[in-house]
Amino acid sequence: MQSPPSSERPERALKSVFTSLPSHISPALAPQSDNADPESDFNLHEPEPRRQPPASLISPAFTPPATPGNATPNPNREPRGIPVDTSKSTEQGPQLVETLPEVFCAVRARIPTVTGSEMFLHLYQNNVDNKEHLAIVFGSAIRSKSLDAPRPGETEMDRMIRGAYVGRLHPGRTNSRIEEIKQDAGVQSAQAAPLVRIHSECYTGETVWSSRCDCGSQLDEAARLMSVPSNARTGGVIIYLRQEGRGIGLGEKLKAYNLQDLGNDTYEANLLLRHPADARSYGLATAMLLDLGVDSCRLLTNNPDKLRAVEGPNREVVVTERVPMIPLAWKTGGKQGVRSEEVEKYLSTKIEKFGHLLSRGE
Ligand SMILES: [Zn+2]
């Protein structure tokens, strides 16, 4: 005698109907998946059912796929922030450096980008490591004090070559300041708190197309948000820190990937390699922001520890708002951005083990 069908049977039957259909017959909703089912083709930890993201967060259908720096700025959407005040927080904050490092902007150059917007790349030196940390600055209102300061014995040509000029360079220009200030109506001091993103270098995610993490698409999205015309009033800064693999370096990160393939998540893999789960420090970011005249900002992040870390030991920089960073793949229902089994696991680890303020359907 046949046993009565279990409660899972109808769902399985439905699944087999969906999976047996030709691929062009897409159901309006993905079949329900139970994650314990090892045979499921749909074991992608889908939110069930997916909540529609607010209209303001959906990128337009014509946006091309997110290759580095290639997203289409949308003129109508300014990122929405959530007011924060870390001075009222009672939570134990992250370990902060006692004194800020000294930083010095050696050179700056205008970089027109593939999206049509342009930014000024600032290369920094410092007194704590030998790496070339970068500030990617959107808008002409944000200027580096150490770059603009006169250097002994330099000529006007020297100043222009290292990027300490106002306005635009053009063939035949002989002076780094003065007459250009009058000509360039766009030159003004920064008004309100600019949008700031602290980004740590990720060679695998930004350069060699890794789908183990979403760093490449996060960098693209940060640049896109800073380039939208509605953000032009305040400008924006991406502080690009050379701290690969949460600070452990590329070699160790590759070992961690092998440990992940052996069944550990990012957090466990770092601990197995005897690295702190997150070895990054943000003192350099704070010092670079101060050099850029940014003493208050709207911080683009989901990481609660970053809010306080970026402010510095004595709240030298004040974060007035947190602007959520929503993975492009979630925002667009998987049409754009990184979407893979690995990146889903990585994002889940960020939420569960690193306490990121991110929820599906945000
Ligand atoms: Zn990455």
TrEMBL record:
It comes from the Eukaryota. One of its GO terms (biological process) is riboflavin biosynthetic process. Gene3D superfamilies: GTP cyclohydrolase II. The keyword Phosphoprotein does not apply. Pathway: Cofactor biosynthesis; riboflavin biosynthesis. Its EC number is 3.5.4.25. Residues 1-95 are annotated as: Disordered. GO terms for molecular function: GTP binding; GTP cyclohydrolase II activity. Residues 42-51 have a biased composition (Basic and acidic residues). Keywords: GTP-binding, Hydrolase, Nucleotide-binding, Riboflavin biosynthesis. It catalyses: GTP + 4 H2O = 2,5-diamino-6-hydroxy-4-(5-phosphoribosylamino)-pyrimidine + formate + 2 phosphate + 3 H(+). Residues 191-324 form the GTP cyclohydrolase II domain. PANTHER family: GTP CYCLOHYDROLASE II-RELATED (PTHR21327), GTP CYCLOHYDROLASE-2 (PTHR21327:SF29). Belongs to the GTP cyclohydrolase II family. This is GTP cyclohydrolase II.
